[in-house]
Amino acid sequence: MFTGIVEELGEVTAVETLGDACRFRLRGPVVTQGAKHGDSIAVNGVCLTVVEHEGDEFTADVMAETLNRSSLGALAVGSRVNLERPTAVGDRLGGHIVQGHVDGTGEILDRTPSEHWEIVKISLPAHLSRYVVEKGSITVDGISLTVVDAGRDHFTVSLIPTTLALTTLGIKKPGDPVNLEVDVIAKYVERMLGDRVAGEEASR
Hints:
The chain has 204 residues and is α+β, with helices and mostly antiparallel strands. Helix content is 15%, strand content 40%. The protein contains three helices and twelve strands. The longest helix has 19 residues, at 184-202. The radius of gyration is 18 Å and the shape is globular.
């Protein structure tokens, strides 16, 4: 489990195409401290497994399902990525519950700078809009953010200087894709209520 608090801005150093999969080599001095084979590291919000670790770099394999559901397929050598290690039991939950299971991708639509923050408008796939509410939580490229406004096909977030300086959202521009993970609690509530309604209808 992750919390959406990015630990560092890493970099893709190599990309190897493996037919219906890819192997990425990524540099991240912070997240590789003590890393070993089989560990999990979130890359732009996608939970990946460490295959090899050497120095401040690690490799991870990405299968076709992940490439199709996320924006990782657009990464190239030199791409900057948000990196986060899983939360340890007993640590503070600084963001919200993040699984690293991307639900879909959005696109940066607009950026409105202000003196001390910036408003970013992001497109929202139709199948995810019901999970996004004003002042609710959403994960964008692995960053735990609060929704400012929620529309039917878009939402906005307000970014503080720290987020702009230390994550990919500081360098993304209109047209760039981002990974989205909605609040898992909303999905469980929907499923439970759906099962309850179905059960009530079946008993009539």
